[in-house]
């Protein structure tokens, strides 16, 4: 699993952020915001530290956060998980993914994901001993071919692991695709794992959790995180909601990964989840503007751009600028334009890298002036 191309090779995010620090280039590689989140959330964490919430919290998560997660699901999606038995707090969505994959798969099981896929999926599937099968998302709209999806899910499939809205393509899956996933999960007795960390970051479309579709709830694990919604990626407060029996299996693994995490940040994320609707609308509108600024800059620089409908990433094709190898292009980009980005090949299995070879991911969760400066620098390409 180790080695330069193995599932556990160093993550692209560490490499590219180090390159940004070393060269002083603008970091549009690793996805993290360059501004703090809401003051209500920051203040709640400070108050929690002052109030002495600095020891191990309960393994399943603090009641105040589990209740806030359940209320948030009810407010936005009409879902009503039981905060005592169907909500689990984790160390970021990363741990929720890790514990879920390790708990629910055995050697030889198959896990189906879309491709490109978030890099930790392949690593955790490899660590669990399961087989990874992929369904391609292809430019320009990155929607899956439904026949390919039908063919990929079989009786060997244990998990259908989706990410919606999708990193790195910015795709939002259609209701038709979500309904087919539920149907296939029933037909082949698979569990759906849905990574929805970008649930509030959609542009002109609303987010539909797959758990809200008829027949889905009993076999779906929904994963999210406070990092993206409250600009607190460094706090690593994530969570999942799942039927009680499935959650118990995941908790059995989670207790030996980290036991618990982030005591003072848990009530702070709870305060965030209780912010009024206007906050959540506001972050999506703000980000839509940032997407437009960077997309326009990339187009003006000569890239072919796929318009994302969610997440904080935009995919640009460097082939139009004469660069056919995005990995080599990203290594040169700090020198060429003072910008760091990430090649899509980092989210693709070895055998399919060719198809995505010239595609680059840029993060637009940055201040508008930073995006404008990056655009001006990219114009020199
Ligand atoms: N899933 C996806 C699709 C992501 O983009 C990320 C990273 N931001 C994560 C999971 C990990 O989230 P966290 O930082 O909460 O662990
Ligand atoms: N999820 C973020 C991204 O895709 C950061 C990931 C990370 O640093 N592990 O850029």
UniProtKB/TrEMBL annotation:
User: Secretion signal: which residues?
Assistant: none
Q: Which Pfam families match?
A: Aminotran_1_2
Member of which family?
Belongs to the class-I pyridoxal-phosphate-dependent aminotransferase family.
Which cofactors does it use? pyridoxal 5'-phosphate
Which residues does the UniProt record annotate as the domain Aminotransferase class I/classII large?
25-364
Tagged with keyword tRNA-binding:
no
> Organism source for this protein?
Lacisediminihabitans changchengi
UniProt-recorded name of the protein: Aminotransferase class I/II-fold pyridoxal phosphate-dependent enzyme
Q: Which UniProt keywords apply?
A: Aminotransferase, Pyridoxal phosphate, Transferase
For this record, an example GO cellular component is: cytoplasm
Please name the GO terms that the record assigns under molecular function: kynurenine-oxoglutarate transaminase activity; pyridoxal phosphate binding
Q: Does the keyword Transmembrane apply?
A: no
